């Protein structure tokens, strides 16, 4: 055992982990689970991945620099937490997970290049990464060419499905429809005003929302407006909202624009306790920048809120705070990023192999009961069955859970009648 | 498109929309003034302008936290303190940068573009390391939130009025300093003929240093004011830089009047178009108009004649 201990302390992995998880008692140091109990490497790795008798290498590929670092930091933190916890619990097939982290630097070609590096040079068994749809679209051909496995955490527009990707966030119909149904029923909403940033996700989401409002809810869309990414002046659209007096403002504004939009909405005298607003783009992370006082009263529609009351989530939030600081907030995507390493571990164990083909085939049906959002399951189409929830923003920057679907919502990346 | 609305409704919306245009105008002037001074008077293309603004925003955030923790009774007035601190923080950093970097590049104006762009990346990463990658929320005193009701249907945002007053004040102050004070005369003398200015006893190096500091300081104030309407994060400065250059270049370098005229025309075009079409299209048309006019008048709206 003393040999084990020595090797553990000196290995590069050990040093790397120490940087992040000093706060978490590493059981291995006290002679906890042994990492050499798994099946023979030749049996679990037939395609030349970076798997040894004691270690398996996994890549993390997010933007740690550039514009997107604001959003992607939480995902990196969640993935490192999940991996640390998995290692603490004995690793995957008796092997400790070693992380190689690459920086996509908010630049899509860089993402593709780094993905290739991770797959070709480092031969990682899986990649946890990407955030924007643009980065995923850049990485996808690389994943398919070199047969890698990507766990993608962000809620996104759908219209995609790949053998080489597991989508741990919600696709658009999953996220939007239940929220619209709820607000139509609860608030008797008939007229909607859409405001979004001008790129693929808001445009596709609003297209789906418009079809649903017009065809299913028999309501009316009284305005649909897009502003360039990074726009900081929203007074004109706020005036249009005042003129059209919609029952619901439906928003998918992202990034720094989000902050400007809500601050100016508040400054223009629109009181969110009287004017219903449903957003699909504001998580606890964004409220940090917006300020609780500017958005209190708004409704957000997604699958996870930090305030969810269940045993898994309480443990998750406590562990997250212990590792990354008490003040760190946890948004929807951060939670979805946390699912990635766990789902991969469960799939590897079911498949009894690290081979990507076997993992892709074994993924459908994988259940994760320990998810902070509650039970989830991987669908045939590599998306997750998950519940959709509506939360109301509070002054302290947290959401109060108002509504959740009774059952898991089926992921439907190619929705009929919505295209 | 207006058939469904009453005359009264439309009237109030047009008033508010006019006001929105004026707010946009003030925002443009505020962010462009500092750059206009640096670009116009010194010929330095300061790509790090946005980062100097964000320094002001972070100073405001820290001041707000400080007041909340130690002087909660004075919180309602902290913003004024914050703006003054922001001016000095950004100004001091500006002077340091001028001394360490810019003054070596005065004979290579295009290289200043590259150097200050590098500086902007360095500053962004510095903010990220110091303040964290996430955005911070700057809490405002109660009186600065919400809107002022003028009539039953016309409301104007208080922070808009605040930005307008601030812009007016700073514009007057800058105009006074540049055109009435002794120091302003020196600056203009250096711009017109550096060698002669030096020959008559003006310390041109010190003038350069202070001019750069003043420009950056004003950027700091702008950044501080923009915490009311926008986000504060390591890369938020990038949100403003394109519009800022647009205003300065369109107005004609070296001309404060030009900057103001250009801010006015761009903001009014933008906000009028925004009302009739989507924000993205409005932006496209505004940019097209600017490009068109710059093709006819490459020197911008107003141009000073200077000795090359």
What's the SSE blueprint?
The complex is a heterodimer of chains A (419) and B (308).
Chain A: H1 2-10, H2 12-21, H3 41-44, E1 55-62, H4 69-88, E2 96-103, H5 108-121, E3 127-129, H6 133-145, E4 150-152, E5 165-167, H7 172-187, E6 191-197, H8 200-216, E7 220-227, H9 235-244, E8 248-252, H10 256-267, E9 276-279, H11 284-290, H12 292-295, E10 299-302, H13 311-324, H14 332-351, H15 356-362, E11 367-368, E12 376-378, E13 384-385, E14 389-393, E15 399-404
Parallel strand pairs in A: 1-2, 1-3, 3-4, 4-5, 6-7, 6-8, 8-9, 9-10
Antiparallel strand pairs in A: 10-14, 11-12, 12-13, 14-15
Helix pairs in contact in A: 4-14, 5-6, 7-8, 10-11, 14-15
Chain B: H1 7-42, H2 49-70, H3 78-100, H4 109-131, E1 147-149, E2 155-157, H5 158-179, H6 182-192, H7 194-199, H8 204-226, H9 238-251, H10 256-276, H11 279-296
Antiparallel strand pairs in B: 1-2
Unreliable residue runs of chain B = none
Alpha-carbon distance between the two ends of chain A: 61 Å
Radius of gyration of chain A: 22 Å
Number of strands of chain B: 2
How many DSSP helices of chain A? 15
Largest sheet of chain B: 2 strands, antiparallel
Helical proportion of chain A?
40-55%
Strand content of chain A: 15-25%
Q: What is the H-and-E element order of chain B?
A: HHHHEEHHHHHHH
What average pLDDT do the residues of chain A reach?
Answer: 89
Uncertain segments of chain A are 1-10, 12-32
The CATH superfamily of the largest domain in chain A is Response regulator
Helix-residue proportion of chain B: over 70%
